[in-house]
Amino acid sequence: MYTKDELGYKKRLKKRSKRPMGLTIVCALVVLFGFIYLIEIYLNVPKMNLGEHPGMKTIYPALNALVIVFSFVSISGVWSMEKWGPITFPFIVLFKILIDLLLLQKFNPWYLLGFVVAVYFFRFYKQMKHSE
C-alpha cells in the first residue's frame, strides 16, 4: 500500500502486526530470565568446577554471555513480530545446551523449557512479517 508525501512522491506504508498480550508477557519473562542468568553466571564462576584448563573460567562465561546476547536479539525479533525471531530462538537454546554438554559435561533439563517457549513463539508465526 502506498501513500503520497507532501512533494507528491509515493511512500510505502509499513504494515505493523499487532502483538498479542501473551507474546508480550513471554518475551518480557525471557528477557528478565536472561538478565538474571547473566548475573548468576558471573557471580558463580569462582564456585564452578570448570576443569583444570586455565582458560575455562574465562571462556565459559564469555560463551554464555554470547548466548544471552543472541537470545536478546532473537527476542527482539519476536517482539517486533519479525519471522526470523522465532526461527533463531530454538537454535540459540540448542547452542546453550551444547555449550554446557561440551564444556561442563552436564545437562540441565530446565533448558528444554526454551524449546517450549520456541513452540509458543511459532504459534504466532503466520501473524509475523518478513524483514525487508
Give structural notes.
By secondary structure, the protein is mostly helical. It has one domain (20-127). Helix content is 60%, strand content 5%. It is built from 4 helices and 2 strands; from the N terminus they run ββαααα. It has helices spanning 21-44, 56-79, 84-104, 113-122; strands spanning 2-4, 10-12. A two-stranded antiparallel ribbon has the order 1-2. A hairpin with a 5-residue loop joins strand 1 (2-4) and strand 2 (10-12). The model has no long low-confidence stretch (mean pLDDT 84).
Radius of gyration: 19 Å
- Structural class assignment: mainly alpha
How many helices does DSSP assign?
Answer: 4
Order of helices and strands: EEHHHH
Strand content: under 5%
Uncertain stretches: none
Distance between the termini: 15 Å
Average the pLDDT over all residues and give the rounded result: 84
- How is the main sheet built? 2 strands, antiparallel
Q: What's the number of domains?
A: 1
How many individual β-strands? Answer: 2
Q: What is the global morphology? A: elongated
In what order do the strands lie side by side in the largest sheet? 1-2
Please give the share of residues in helix. Answer: 55-70%
List keywords for this structure.
about 60% helix; 2 strands; about 130 residues; mainly alpha; two-stranded antiparallel sheet; about 5% strand
Give a quick precis of the structure:
Helices cover 60% and strands 5% of the residues.
Topology:
Blueprint: E1 2-4, E2 10-12, H1 21-44, H2 56-79, H3 84-104, H4 113-122
Helix pairs in contact: 1-2, 2-3, 3-4
